[in-house]
Amino acid sequence: MSGVLVVLEQRGGVWNRMSFEALAAGQQMAATLGTTCSAAVLGASVGALAQELAGKKLEKVFAVEHALVEPYTADAYVTVLEQLVKQAAPAFVLFPHTYQVRDFAPALATRFRQVLISDVIAIHADDAARGPVFVRQLLQGKLNADYRQASRGGPCFLSVQAGTFRADTVEGGTAPVEAVAAQLEAAQIRNKPGEPFRESAQTVDLSSAPVIVSVGRGIGEQENIPLVQELADALGAELAASRPICDNGWLPMERQVGSSGQTVSPKLYLAVGISGAIQHLVGMKGSKAVIAINKDENAPIFEVADFGVVGDMFEIVPELTKAVLAAKA
Question: What contacts 326, CB < 8 A, 6 or more positions away?
């Protein structure tokens, strides 16, 4: 067994937004371990998606097609992916940590007498003999735990947490596409497809926002929210918030960032009046650059910020908004 196999997720010919985060993780893991990375996509007709993957830096793209794979059922995915893993013989099988993956991947790992190491936030390869270390968070991010594959008798299965790896770091290249004829019969599918799980309807998808201005408890009163909204508008950014703001009803819950809200990975995350509780940091740790404004110089947010401004947000934010508007004029 050798190499990393990334299983991407799609529905109706549209990629799940986390698929390319997983692909970035697979490429980085392969480079760290000095091995190869391949990718697989499943569906009733995935030729176009496979050709898109052919433009990435991969050893091979597996296009796994079968009419019974759509609509999704755990039985179909486990059966088909078991065949693919046996054929490709990867040392590591990597997934995005989606609701669908949580449904079938543990059963797939069990077929190989392995377990799924889920929701991984970091991968270290400091001991080649013992294998890489996979880092997971416990207690809503208060603790980090290191995991290794318990048994080296089969491939290692893992999923990566949303926002941990950046989709825009996926390397381009040229890869051959191999069509895989899956062996699957209707009798093997014991469960009937139901309505796909859907998260609560949202008018804004913070996960795709390139710039986010997020407000915290330091805003004091709901009447002060427009102060930060003006800055967000000037920057062309989405407005987000920490949990206390949304719990108070000052902003909709769909704008909450954190372990019980959305996980984001913008190019710029501007935290205004946010202390930096671990539950909030879990949701924005994938941000490329973090700027924090807080009057408390000992606020935990400064430990993760690339740039920090210690001062009164009611003085700083209006001046910052004026400067942004002046630069755009």
Answer: none
Q: Does this chain's domain 4-188 share its CATH topology with 206-328?
A: yes
The residue ranges of DSSP E strands in the chain, in sequence order, are: 4-7, 10-11, 14-15, 37-43, 61-65, 92-96, 116-124, 133-138, 143-147, 156-160, 177-181, 211-215, 238-241, 268-272, 289-294, 307-310
Q: Where are the domains of the chain?
A: 4-188, 206-328
What one-character-per-residue DSSP string does 167-191 give?
GGGPPB----EEEEE----GGG--S
Of the candidate CATH numbers 3.30.70.2740, 3.40.50.300, 3.30.450.40, 3.40.50.620, the domain formed by 4-188 belongs to: 3.40.50.620
Q: For residues 272 and 29, give the distance between their C-alpha atoms in angstroms, rounded to a whole number.
A: 35
Whether omega before 193 lies within 30 degrees of 0, making that bond cis, reads no
Asked whether the beta carbons of 23 and 97 are under 8 A apart, the reply is no
Q: What is the DSSP letter of 195?
A: P
**How far is Cα of residue 255 from the mean position of the Cα atoms in its chain?**
17
Instruction: Mention the CATH class of domain 206-328.
Output: alpha beta
Whole-angstrom CA distances from 158 to 96, 102, 132, 204, 301 are: 9, 11, 12, 29, 30
Q: Kindly list the distances between the CA atom of residue 15 and the CA atoms of 20, 23, 41, 46, 52, in Å, as whole numbers in the listed order.
A: 8, 12, 10, 11, 11
Residue 47 sits at the vertex; the CA angle it makes with 44 and 52, to the nearest 5 degrees, is 130
Model confidence over 276-313: pLDDT tens digits? 988 898 888 889 899 999 999 999 999 999 999 999 99
Torsion angle, CA of 103/95/181/55, rounded to 10 degrees? 150
- Each residue's pLDDT tens digit, 155-212: 999 999 887 888 889 999 999 999 998 899 988 999 887 776 565 555 678 888 999 9
Phi, psi of 96 (to 5 degrees): -75, 145
